[in-house]
Design goal:
Number of domains: 1
Strand content: 15-25%
Order of helices and strands: EHEHEHEHEHH
Structural class: alpha/beta
Bound molecules: 4'-phosphopantetheine
Radius of gyration: 15 Å
CATH architecture: 3-Layer(aba) Sandwich
Largest sheet: 5 strands, parallel
Number of strands: 5
Amino acid sequence: MKLAICPGSFDPVTLGHINIISRASKMFDRVIVVAMVNKDKQPLFSQEERVELLKRATAFLPNVEVDSFDGLLADYAREKNATVIVKGLRALSDFEYEFQMALTNRKLNPSVETVFVTTNAEYMYLSSSLVKQVAGLGGDISEFVPSCIVNDILKKYGRNETK
Ligand code: PNS
């Protein structure tokens, strides 16, 4: 049984994330999506809220579970006996940071390999930060995030819910 971990901040989960997670679910028997704490970012959603949104948005993928962790990803992988970390790569600009994290994680846990999955071209521009910016400024985010979480995001900005 091959297990992979898909870590991230997921603040909030976007259609780009869902695309990577669903492709990972085809490559591995079991996938754990884990909402981590990124100390460099001040999240809009609490860790519990991010888990709840992820659960809703990945409910259609039977071999995908959602979890949260506050600590080192390398330790989480060890705890779960996972040897693969899956990360999405959008553009060259992601690469240096992701490369650095992959090398650090392997140093901290030599049995873990990071596998990069390239984004679908239609999601190349997409990020959680962009979604928050558009939502905060009154724009339409329905093309960027799963429809089942649109209202949760709008609510954070005091906007009226869509039907
Ligand atoms: O979605 P993000 O914010 O790019 O994800 C980054 C994340 C959360 C995967 C990364 O910051 C992380 O793994 N944080 C946990 C702490 C840790 O292990 N830091 C060292 C990684 S090199």
